[in-house]
C-alpha cells in the first residue's frame, strides 16, 4: 500500500479482506482524510458534551469519596 510498500493484494490476503473493500477505503481516505476516521476527528456537539460531562462526573465522584473518607476520619477521632 502507500506508506509501507505492501501490495494491495498482499494486504488483502493478510487481512482476509476483499480487494474491492480495501481499494474503496483507500479512495475514501484520499477523498476526505478528516472524515475517514470519524472517531478520531472532529466530533459532533453532543458527543463533545457527553465527554465533558463524563469527565465532570468522574471528578465529582472523586471529590465525594474524599469527603466521605474525611467525615469517617473525623468521626473516629471525635470518639
TrEMBL record:
Taxonomy, superkingdom: Bacteria
GO molecular function, one term: transposase activity
A biological process from GO: DNA transposition
Signal peptide limits: none
Pfam families: HTH_Tnp_1
Protein name per its UniProtKB record: Transposase
Organism this protein belongs to: Loktanella fryxellensis
Amino acid at each position: 500500500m502507500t506508506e509501507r510498500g505492501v501490495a494491495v493484494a498482499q494486504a488483502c490476503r493478510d487481512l482476509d479482506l476483499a480487494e474491492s473493500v480495501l481499494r474503496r477505503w483507500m479512495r475514501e481516505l484520499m477523498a476526505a482524510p478528516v472524515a475517514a476516521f470519524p472517531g478520531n476527528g472532529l466530533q459532533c456537539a453532543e458527543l463533545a458534551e457527553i465527554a465533558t460531562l463524563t469527565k465532570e462526573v468522574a471528578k465529582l465522584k472523586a471529590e465525594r469519596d474524599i469527603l466521605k473518607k474525611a467525615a469517617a476520619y473525623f468521626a473516629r477521632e471525635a470518639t
